[in-house]
Amino acid sequence: METKQNILKGAMILSIGVMLSKIIGLVYRIPLTNIIGDEGNGLYSSAYQVYIIILTLTATAIPAGLSKLIAEREAIGEHKEAEHIFKVTLRAGFICSLILAVIVVLGADVIADLFFNGENVGQPIRVLVPTILIMTVVASLRGYFQGLGNMVPTASSQVIEQIFHVVFTVILAYYLIEKSLLSAVTGATLGTSIGALAALLALIVIYLKIKKERKPVLEAQKNYHQESNKVILKQVLAIMLPIIISTCVFSIMTFIDLSMITNLLPESLSQLKASGLIETVPVADVAHLEIGKIATSLKGQYGFQYNTFINIPISIIVQIAAASIPAIAASAVINKRKDINEKIKMIFKLGMIIAAPTAVAFFLFGEPIIGLVLRKATGGELLSAGAVSLIFITIAQLSAAVLQAMGKPKEASVHAILACIVKVVINYILIRIPQCHIFGVIYSTTICYAIYGSLNLIYLYRHFAIKLEWKQVVIKPIICAVIMGAISYGLYVVMNLLMGREKLSMLLVIPVAIVVYFVVAIWTRTIDKADLEGLPGGKKLQRFIRI
């Protein structure tokens, strides 16, 4: 059986890149939100979500599909065939992106009218079009490098992309806000294109270097069987389509969420105002704002504050799952049931060790956490309300990854579609209830992922006899997180009373909470010796804590 070090190696590299990108991305949203406010964030989120859906269709699945095919060819010494697959995929992806880009340019205003009730997002959507073309090439290059077993270009290009994205987004928004809010939002979206271009240039430099290094290997290959473009594209699509469907379903769902908020929330808020309860809505100076501005501000909180913070732990969990899929699949091929169960137990435990304490922290400290990075701590109530969803999102994402590893990606896609259909119905019901308003979307997300995860787990149990060790991998991490939360919250209250400074109290509580969780997890054997052995420097850590 592969060691935990081997399983986590790829995830560690990719996770570092993702985490640095997330941190940089979070930092840039501080000045951006201070410049364009919640209303600007609402417009930005609408335009950006259109881009995400198109990116999902054109680029998101390319690294997974391309890397698999290239790795297979490289393993049997077919280096020239691997190069040919890369070039065919790159050309096909670029052509598809170009077609979609033209459609978006021509239909941006129609999209704004149809889905966002005529919001001024047509111009920002058009500005994002070049990014669609650039990111398709970027995704192809990342898939190529990953197929060669090199994760560093992907991770480094993600960081470079975010740095340029951050700098130019803030600069453009700052200088254009004097003209109008729409101009500032448009400038912010242009920063995305500049970041993508920087990543592309970095990857091209790496590609040229590796191409030179690979030249002797390619020349040494005597036998070369060039597959037809049609055969290659069929192979790529067979891998990519299930991934595209699963990813696209939730990208579209977020798009539908924003659309339903835009179209249904104003009526709900109007009823709330008529009943004299509008001041219960978490928007600054809400009593003096128009309904449209309140709705846009709430959408901005959901699109930025909530989604940004909730996606930080999820991004790490996704990388752990992605890096574990090949290991689980390898055991499945030779039918090593014990290995399969051990690896599944490992990824679920790792996921919950991340998700459980984060969920408790978001639930108890939603507003203070956002207040650490934003001048106005709006969105804290949404983050607290959505904290529980982290547990279900983790279970759903990891169980979907296991289904893919077991050769059942279509089933995961079907489960995702069913869960999202239920979410749309619940959205429609809850958003229209004045007392729920924006929180209806948060509650429906929790229900959606609970259904998605349950369907996945039921399928795994019925068809593969795979059953989670709930006590060890789910319940114990949650208990440890609750203990951590109780101690941390008590400490926060005391420190806040003594010092009267919320941000400083929160900053001091965070490291204490981490230590408390780690100690409690070891004390309860939630984290055991075998888990530490799977971490870099794990043996030294074992000696330090003597377990």
Topology, element by element:
Layout: H1 4-60, H2 62-75, H3 79-115, H4 122-127, H5 129-147, H6 152-176, H7 181-220, H8 229-274, H9 291-333, H10 337-373, H11 380-385, H12 389-405, H13 409-431, H14 439-464, H15 470-499, H16 502-523, H17 529-533, H18 538-545
Helix pairs in contact: 1-5, 1-6, 1-7, 1-8, 1-9, 2-3, 2-5, 2-8, 3-5, 3-8, 5-7, 6-7, 8-9, 8-13, 9-10, 9-12, 10-12, 10-15, 10-16, 12-13, 12-14, 13-14, 15-16
Membrane topology: Multi-pass membrane protein
Main location: membrane
GO cellular component, one term: plasma membrane
Estimate the helix proportion, in percent.
over 70%
Please, how many helices?
Answer: 18
Structural class: mainly alpha
Q: What is the mean predicted local confidence, pLDDT?
A: 82
Percent range for β-strand residues: under 5%
Rg measurement, Å? 24 Å
Instruction: Profile the largest sheet.
Output: none
Q: Uncertain segments of ≥5 residues (pLDDT<50)?
A: none
Integer tally of domains: 3
3D shape: globular
Distance between the first and last residues' Cα: 23 Å
Number of DSSP E strands: 0
Order of helices and strands: HHHHHHHHHHHHHHHHHH
